[in-house]
């Protein structure tokens, strides 16, 4: 009973850190957001959204190696992580690994994946390359 209460407290603290990270992200304070998500991950490393939220911060800083690492961890924890597959797909496209990037985007959902490819493929050449 005491152990369960302690675990619930840790989960609550991690969730508050996620909310803090979301706030920092909304203010373009990506370093502070990364710190908050990292603390949440330290407390609850098996929550995929903490990994994908941090990955998005790394994307905003153009740190593609860290985006990939965080997305792969999120996907390992949740094979159906839409955000994980999406961000990993963008990372692979950015590195000119088109076949793998498209494969990841298609995992988001066939129709959604095709729409994302149509939408972002041209943008990647103009904005990310």
UniProtKB/TrEMBL annotation:
InterPro entries: TPR-like_helical_dom_sf, TPR_rpt. One of its GO terms (biological process) is cellular response to misfolded protein. SUPFAM superfamilies: TPR-like. The keyword Zinc does not apply. It catalyses: S-ubiquitinyl-[E2 ubiquitin-conjugating enzyme]-L-cysteine + [acceptor protein]-L-lysine = [E2 ubiquitin-conjugating enzyme]-L-cysteine + N(6)-ubiquitinyl-[acceptor protein]-L-lysine. Keywords: Repeat, TPR repeat, Transferase, Ubl conjugation pathway. TPR repeats lie at residues 14-47. Its EC number is 2.3.2.27. Pfam families: ANAPC3, TPR_8. The keyword GTP-binding does not apply. It comes from the Eukaryota. GO terms for molecular function: protein-folding chaperone binding; ubiquitin protein ligase activity. GO terms for cellular component: cytoplasm. This is RING-type E3 ubiquitin transferase. It comes from Citrus x changshan-huyou.
